[in-house]
Amino acid sequence: MTTTNTLPLTSAAAVQDTPKATAEPRWVKWTLVGTALTFLTLFLILPLMVVLYGAFEAGMQVWWQAVTEPDALAAIRLTLFVLLIVVPLNAVFGVAIAWAIAKFEFRGKTILISIIDMPFAISPVVVGLIFVILLGSQGWFGPWLAEHDLRIIFAVPGIVIVILFGTLPFVARELIPLMQQQGKEEEEASLTLGASGWKTFWYVTLPNIKWGLIYGVVLCNARAMGEFGAVAIVSGRIRGETNTMPLHIEVLYNEYMFTAAFAVSSLLTGLALVTIVVKSWIEWKDERKKTSSTAR
Amino acid sequence: MRTAALKPVIPGFGLTMGFSVLYLSLLLIIPVAGLILFTLQMSWEDFWRAVSHPQVVASYKLSFLASFIGASINAVFGTLVAWVLVRYRFPGKRIIDGLVDLPFALPTAVAGIALVTLYAGTGWVGQYFEPFGIRIAYSQIGVVIALTYIGLPFVVRTVQPVLADFEKELEEASAALGANRLTTIRRVIFPAILPALLTGYALAFARAVGEYGSVIFISGNLPYRTEITPLLIVAKAEQYDYHGAAAIGVVMLGAAFILLLLINGLQWWASRRG
Amino acid sequence: MSIHIEGVNKRFGDFVAVDNVNLDIKTGELTALLGPSGSGKTTLLRIIAGLEHPDSGVIRFNSEDITGQHVSERGVGFVFQHYALFKHMTVFENVAYGLTVKPKKLRPSKAEIAKKVNKLLELVQLDWTADRYPSQLSGGQRQRIALARALAVEPKVLLLDEPFGALDAKVRAELRRWLRRLHDEIHVTSVFVTHDQEEALEVADRIVVMNKGRIEQDGTPEQVYDNPANPFVYEFLGNVNLFHARVKASGETKFTSASDDTAQQADEQDGLAYVRAHEIEVLTSAEPDALPVTLDLITMVGPTARLEVLNQQDGKLVHIELPKEQFKALNLKSGDAAWIKPKYSQVFLGEGI
User: Fold this and answer.
1) Entry's Pfam families (chain A) (predicted)?
2) Do C51 and B9 touch (CB under 8 A)?
């Protein structure tokens, strides 16, 4: 703690008692910290503890059985399969649209950015409904799809589509501000040195957006794994076939198999924690870089 | 002399823009337009009957009121958390800072079963309220709890950077001009964070109105009492009443668009102030 | 490689950045594009580089029309004001970049690249920084690395956009002398943009003064300084004082004041005389054609005395600079009366700018 010495004649004790002009008294500080921590404990920490406690309460063996039971494994496999399609597609989209928005001037840019935000505002339930209506057997394209023997709703493709919709903004939202802030001078420098567009992207742009891209992908990944409302409508909840991990958790919970539900939940919780660690680490790295470059 | 109608110097505009617009159209714009067109096939009477059924109206009231209360709680405590994280040092701060993002990262279904287990009459927290006759889970309070949880990161994450960038000199100037600490906070700091606070508030509200996964476990889903609007859409879709579901869906979509416009306006305001 | 700019125009929306510019730059010359901000000098430079496309007009390197050629094919070296070094690459990798991105057939071997990069780093006197990252270098060092990187691809022309703009005064002065010597060594046709007249006068073989998208004057530093083509150039190159003057047909000039309403003679024309601050003689007694003034403010800046004096005829402020010793010898102080006499001036007829 530093104290101001604007009053050199007062005793050390008096200086200590006088709060700094731009700080609160000690008791105020600790009351505020205490209130904030209580709030966060009730809403963040305790729910986290409940999941972990519920999962491991009955021992590792029960946990292992719950996550390796055939329906659970099928749900895990399906979830991973969906991720394998959704995350790369949305990552490519995010990079493409961030490039278009950050490196060029065109009309309607702000409208385009707002459109990207739409999935944040639309209820996941409505997203599911939209695709059931368009692609379901009673939907507009239903008869045509049935004719060609294509099943989308109550099948895996429907799950992929709604998760694509729901997680569409994540990579784009990370990259757009980052690339806008970086400007285009380094790319121009690369071009003047004779590099082609692809080489410039690969050697100059990509290394510069690497961390933003990684975080966007990790977040997109976490949200894709956890997508629930939209998937609940389009999956049809066919056990072992169209149940993703969150749907499987719901089934287990509704069948009063709480330990199993928490066991599968603990896997998703682990992923959420990894996401947070990655984010904190990237931020910490940025902060350190910033302070080291301003110190110079 | 000739006119050089040339491509921009940095390549890839056609490719990236073309792909982005195609992707957005196929995945987002056409499907959303499809939902609206679908409801336009309904007669006005059918549409009105579907969206104004007393059970549906009760769900609007719950969804919007609970979202409003949840977002308000977050406005107060979110600002407090942001303040504490920016201004004070205390043990475990970095971990707490990271955990604020948990509602973004943790699947809503997981959050749902965790919250209901915690706040049920036998749960770690619920048991202390049960003797006083206060039921949290399976009541409207439960809905508020879930919607508060889901909106928690928004206010913190919008206010936090503004507070961090706030110039200490302004506070010192205010203090030097004779203002006490409370006056400085009220007249100097609060106006500076207000646009960010309102943006966070609107984001939390928008997210809460459409939330499904974390609510349905804790709400108990009693018709007219603890049924949220998204749940009704799911219920109608499961009974293949697509028109009924779509009508309510369009109402939700309308609310989402209005909120999105509001948020954009607030962000524009915030950036102009910054 | 000579550069020929023919009838080039460029607008950004309603703003005319470059207005029908014609300019030829000779092989091996070091040319400065000098002008205030918004004069179109940077846009013109970016058009030469191919970073900006002209709305109309032609750019030729030697006699070849390269207007439609992409920047990556033009073989220009471009040095950016804020360096634009690749943050994630070491100094060595930065300088080697232009060579490593060449197509396989044209790419030199690793050993050749290393040899060339090290030679360039020696040329810019920074060979010891090869393994560092740009963030570990000072501004002046970064700018030298940016120059080495541009030179690595053996550019036909070297273009520098305000190369010293972001540096502090001392480093600036050092670097521009260094750039001058470097150019004498490598003799590549070079164009640099600056708003600093001193920099242009010191470094360039030739100065092109720009204003509002047009070229105001084009000549050697001496020509531009000693014979400014118009009032804008005069004002832009150094401190000047304006005097009302009457010019006789014979060329004889008489300084007057704005309030002078004595009848104009038939063979006289009104005009504005431009006199630089150091081209005014200060006298302690009246002389024919000398103007009476009152000393107002006296500041000593190192070896120079800067005076602000009030023209007694019209009350206007006149700036004067003279060596400190010379001023001391006059034994004048603030408030004293004195007389001034322009030693050299240029008169532009009409009301000037």
Assistant:
1) BPD_transp_1
2) yes
